[in-house]
């Protein structure tokens, strides 16, 4: 068994190593591009690791950006994805490199078994499907963009395909559990991929020979229940939080990305990206939908060998996917843009991974049905790898950031304060490393109450969805003049600007390169009383000198924060007119504990723990039943 697994794994491992050769030789082309990995994921993973080691808790609140924001319901936090435990053992950079490599390798391995066991391909045909999936330029575009969740999800989609095919043919509870785990892992890695995969499952069912549809449906329903139980711990907080975030703006002012210049641009990027007018290396990540010529020809041959019914099904599915991915160039765009599902997807090309799967499986099917020489299959894999290498070689865009001198100055100030850099000149990676708390930020979601507050804080105005606060278009093309009083209320002590600020409360301290460092003379402390303990999930205030009344805390209000007088009596945390927190304190209160403990998290945690316990009990029972037979087998051998 192990020898067989080794034989299967070795070619997939080798091509994955080949795919990663440019990254192994020059890790900065993956780790230091100033992309989502460096600006969003790296800081969060570092912060979570630091919080676990320092406070011995899983941090549910993230204080380093946007004046503090919930981390628990952020769909890309990765906190509840168990393979991320690797980051507790390794340096963060090494963790991202090894995790990404292993997930792409595992995706290829899973694709082999999906083709071999799910669709009954021959070993050679299954291997071709696996190698084409592992070396897809699409997954390399995820690496280049730092789309960590999409890279991790690459491992799980083929496993979903395998389990669905198995359940459709011969429903067994073991496959049901594996389907639930795979879908739960997809949810934890990338929510949109999870939703697209869930919607696409009927197509897979129709492509599979079914033995007992009612029984299969029962197992699918059971997998959905188990999967819900596994993700309830953060799914329920996400559902409770989503309407309080800027994601709702996508339905009020729809916007989609990428914007295609023409259908010809789309086709060029899909089949012959080297003919792109700006060059292969200049293709935007979301437009990098490369299939390759040789893999496409192989897939076309495989398609011709299908039954007519399956041809029609795949044509309809591929046509719909293409119409969605065409975005503004789609003939159905006016219909799609009015649909909420399309609006909230925001990046329609995210559906393209389904086409990659079609291409890999159809190419394998071609090898299955006709005699195709090794040279052709070699060329297909080589084309994918060479295109991927070329894309990874695209130049790294440099940005102007503050110098180390600024960090040295800020680290000397032992007060608890926030910093605002007008053009986001402090990377979030550096903010967490230097324990700085920023007014600005780059995040998938921002609370609506903070959005409205940020207009006064930054001196800009926008009312559409943006990953960045303030948006790139605002800080690049406007000479922002922030409000010193508002920033002072927000505990902002220092402001950094590439241009002079007019407010007299901003006192220029020194110019560092292209940036002027200002002291905000309107700065106010985080709270007017001593803070005796400060962690992501809990804050303790000393109130023995307070006669009673309201205490205002310069922390962003969010549902889920509770206050406890003397650590026992629960009182509500209220929202001030400027969206900060306020607590009413009774006389003779020695201290107040503020805890971030959303009810949705408590409920979800209970559901997930119960699900894990039930699955563990089932596994133990099954193991004990098999133990006597295993003992007899060993005795005879």
UniProtKB/TrEMBL annotation:
The keyword Transmembrane applies. Keywords: Membrane, Transmembrane, Transmembrane helix. Coiled coil: none annotated. InterPro entries: Uncharacterised_YfhO. The keyword Transmembrane applies. It comes from Candidatus Woesebacteria bacterium RIFCSPLOWO2_01_FULL_44_14. It comes from the Bacteria. The chain crosses the membrane at residues 85-114, 146-165, 177-205, 217-237, 288-306, 312-337, 349-366, 372-392. This is Membrane protein 6-pyruvoyl-tetrahydropterin synthase-related domain-containing protein.
